[in-house]
Structure formats: C-alpha cells, structure tokens
Structure prediction request, 324 residues.
Amino acid sequence: MLNSSIRKIGILTSGGDGPGMNAAIRSIVRSALFRGLQVAGIMRGYQGLIDGDVVDLNHRSVSNIINRGGTILKTARCEEFKTLEGQQKAVEVLKKYQIDALVVIGGDGSYRGAHELFERFGVPTIGLPGTIDNDIYGTDQTIGCQTAINTAIDSIDKIRDTAHSMERIFVVEVMGNRSGYIALQVAVAAGAEEVIVPEKNFDYETLYQNILEGNRKGKVSWIIIVSEGAAKATVVANQITEKTGLETRFVILGHVQRGGSPSGHDRILATRLGSSAVDLLLKGQYGKAVGEIRDELNIIDLKEAKKRPNSQIEEYCELLRKLR
Ligand code: ADP
Ligand code: F6P
Prediction:
C-alpha cells in the first residue's frame, strides 16, 4: 500500500441513477480492498450522509451487480446538503464512521457537493460522472449515457414499425435535462427525420412546410426526436396536427431510459473510473473528477466540471437534413 493517511473510503451515488453505477461501486470496493483499505457505502446520496445511513461493504457485497441497472446504494436529491449546516452534519457523520475520503458518483450537481466538502472542510473527495445526460465536462461519455441511448433506440425502432404501417408522424421525447446529447445521438442512430434540442433554436414553420411538402411527394411517416429540455412532445405533436392536418402521435420515453442492464461500454467505463478513483485518493490527489477522453483517463479539478458544450449539434442536424 502507498503511504497514505486514508484507511477507509466512503462511496455514495447521487442525483438521477444511471446504468453502470453498480459497476462503478463494485470496482471502487474491490480496488480499495485490494489496496488494503476498508469501504463504507452511504445510502441515498447526500441525504444518507446527513442521516448517518452507512453500511460496511466487503468483497461479497458487490457480487453479481456488474450487470444490474440502478444503484445498490440507492440515490436521492437532497436540498439540505446544499446548506452549510447540512454539510456540517455530513462531515460529522464522516468523522463518526471514520471515513477518510469520499467517492461521489453522480452528475454536475453531485460534483458541486463533492467540491464543497473538499473546499470548505478539506474532505478528500473524488467525483465519477454518473448520469445518463452526458453533460459533464472532462469526459467524452458519462457512465449510463450509452445504455440510455441504446434503450431509446430500441424503443424508437419499435415505434418506427407502427409509424410506417399506419402512415403517421411520431414525436418522441427523450431525457437529457438541459442537454440535447441523448436526442442527437438517438436521432441519428434511429434514422429520425428531425431533432429538437435545447441548445439550438428550432424553426417550427419550416418543419410544418417540410412535412407538407414531403406528404405531397408521398412521404407519409416521420419520426421527430424532442429533447425534454427543448419542448414537450405533446405540444409539438398537437401543433403539427393543427398546422398540417396530418395524424400525429407522441411518445414520452421517460424513465425507461434510466433502467436496464448497462452496456459493455458503460461497464468498462465504470470499472476503469472506479479503480482510478481509488488510485487518486491513495496518491493524495483530492478534489478531482475522473473521466475518459479518447479512451485515456482524464483527471480534472471538480470545480472545472461545469456543463460540457455540445459540439456535435450542427454536424448532426446537417446529417439528419441530408438523410431524411
Ligand atoms: P446531478 O448530480 O445528477 O446533476 P442534481 O443537480 O439534482 O443531480 O444534484 C444532486 C444532489 O447534489 C443535490 O440534490 C444536492 O444534494 C447536491 N448538490 C447539487 N448542487 C449542489 C451545490 N451547489 N452545493 C452542494 N450540493 C449540491
Ligand atoms: O439527470 C438524469 C435525469 O434522468 C434527466 O435526464 C431528467 O431530466 C431527470 O433526471 C429526471 O429526474 P426525476 O427522476 O427526478 O424525474
């Protein structure tokens, strides 16, 4: 073992769950045990940290979870933790359970919490990007986003069957919070005609004209992907019917996108990042977030991990326009 003051690592999952969080937990636990450390699991994110909801984790605690969606530690959102008083309570719990360092798996909000524990109280923290939204700077992909995209594609393939058979327009709403990443990926992979994302103004009048013109030429079914942060599928579908007179249905894919067995990519990403989090703590590198860029591990300061810019928007929208 390295010469480190860290004897026990705590792990928590926070914010929206995502497939692959369990693979990350398994990797952290087993990597830490391999290095001679103890591991504690904190239930329900920062809420469990404030409440002292702490369990010991051993090698067997993480058996048979690499393939399971969700998180065995459960997850939550916790307003109290955003306050100084909430954070002070959390620090007391860490002391009580002799937890020397904390790995937080979550999105950018969870990262902010980990950063505040480090900055304000000197708690050694590491963030791992766990969210389906893929909206965190410092990593090409977040743990869970690949699986969510695959799940959405699978559903849209099924919608395509009925859209084509009944000659209808479908508006499909996908998750992503304020990021259009899932929508763009899904639109290209599912062969959609149009995508509406929060990062780009959308010209609805042109859409109605394109639909009518296509209809005159015999194009009778459309699949339009809407990112939840841009518009509501119900509203878009109603507007299309009103402006074109064509039969339109909407589908909100919702939380199915958050569940299911993680893809191979998400398992590998989670496993690499989990092990790397333990390495960083033992090297005394605290207040960091680990991601993967072009297959290489990438380490940044937690405070840098603001929303990542979505650089593919123009290219992907142009692709859809050319191919529809
Ligand atoms: P995500 O981590 O997926 O972005 P949220 O933004 O809901 O999800 O954040 C998850 C939790 O992280 C919040 O419920 C809160 O407990 C904590 N958190 C978020 N923002 C902050 C902040 N500015 N300071 C401290 N904790 C925060
Ligand atoms: O951040 C993950 C996410 O699934 C977003 O895509 C979505 O906007 C949000 O969480 C939904 O949150 P909840 O499960 O609280 O409805």
Q: What stands out?
A: The chain has a mean pLDDT of 96.
